[in-house]
Amino acid sequence: MTMTIEQFFSRPQKLPQIPEVVRQLIETFNDPDVDLRQVADKISLDAVISANTLKLANSARYGRSRQVATVNEAAVRLGLDVLRNMVMASGLVDLYPEVRHFDLKAFWIRSFEVGELCRVLAPKAKADAELAFTCGMLHNIGELIIHAAEPELAAELDQRVAKGEARSYAEHAVLGFTYAEVGAELANRWLFPQSIQLAIRNQRVPLLAEPWSEYAALVYLADYLNGLDEMDDDAPVDWPLQLVTKLGLSWPMAKEAWTRVREYGPSFSALLD
Q1: In whole angstroms, what is the distance from residue 97 CA to residue 13 CA?
Q2: I need a labelling partner for 100 at 20 to 30 A (CA). Which of 81, 145, 204, 246 fits?
Q3: 113-170 tens-digit pLDDT
Q4: d(CA 218, CA 130)
Q5: Which of 138, 146, 142, 160 shows the shortest CA–CA distance to 101?
Q6: In angstroms, how far apart are the furthest CA atoms of the chain?
Q7: What percent of the chain has pLDDT over 70?
Q8: What's the CA gap between 271 and 273, in Å, rounded?
Q9: How far apart are CA 224 and CA 241, in angstroms?
Q10: Are the C-beta atoms of residues 90 and 53 closer than 8 Å to each other?
């Protein structure tokens, strides 16, 4: 027997609570006058997230010759947008220490890879790179929530998909809603901006959904590219040409982004070590 989104979210004991510092950072999305130093001071109050932020800020991807020793120094080095994504990534990775019959590390690696592809592709599509990363990082958060809150239903769903059933059909048959809908509703309840909610909700049908969201389209494309094992000179037969054209992108641009992410890896993968 399926349920509604409202019924699913009516059981808060099964849903994750984000760290306070992450909740406060989400609020800064809508604050054009946010003070970077005040943000850093709030982050410093959470010892685990502070340690992870410094670890990432000093990593090969972001580090320079001089190591930073405080969150304030990291904030100055990275800027608000990158810092915010670092802190959110740190907080989200620790939402669930473990989920039965679910590979958390593989899930987060995939999420970070999609986020990184969104970040690389966004400037070419004239979109904000860090906002695109946020959308990509969060695109499949509904999958994690369903596996944690309803493991039996999630297992049944995964079995049906493994047997060849279309995922969206299986989701509606087993759950009554999709992972994308769960993720979008969670983003709504966590008070993420509408742009992020739309990107998560419409990621599977960006050309059909209204209003048009370039971030939903970037997530769709990034997820598509992340599923490719190799890149040829010519685009695959199922290449979403209409979507790519609307974004102002091309197969060579996508190939370059895929190669770059494969070469350097997702920027926040150090959180999973």
Answers
A1: 16
A2: 204
A3: 999 999 999 999 999 999 999 999 999 999 999 999 999 999 999 999 999 999 999 9
A4: 12
A5: 146
A6: 58
A7: 99
A8: 6
A9: 12
A10: yes
Q: Residue 258: which residues within 8 A CB-CB, separation 6 or more?
A: 117, 225, 228, 231
Mark residue 191 as left, alpha or beta (left: phi above 0; alpha: psi -120 to 50; beta: remaining): left
Q: Which residues contact 53 (CB under 8 A, 6 or more apart)?
A: 43, 71, 74, 83, 86, 87, 90
Residue with tokens 């340690």: 51
The answer to pTM > 0.90 is yes
Residue type, 108: W
* 71 has a pLDDT exceeding 80: yes
Instruction: Name which of 183, 240, 182 is nearest 207 in CA terms.
Output: 240
Inform me whether the pLDDT recorded for 240 exceeds 90: yes
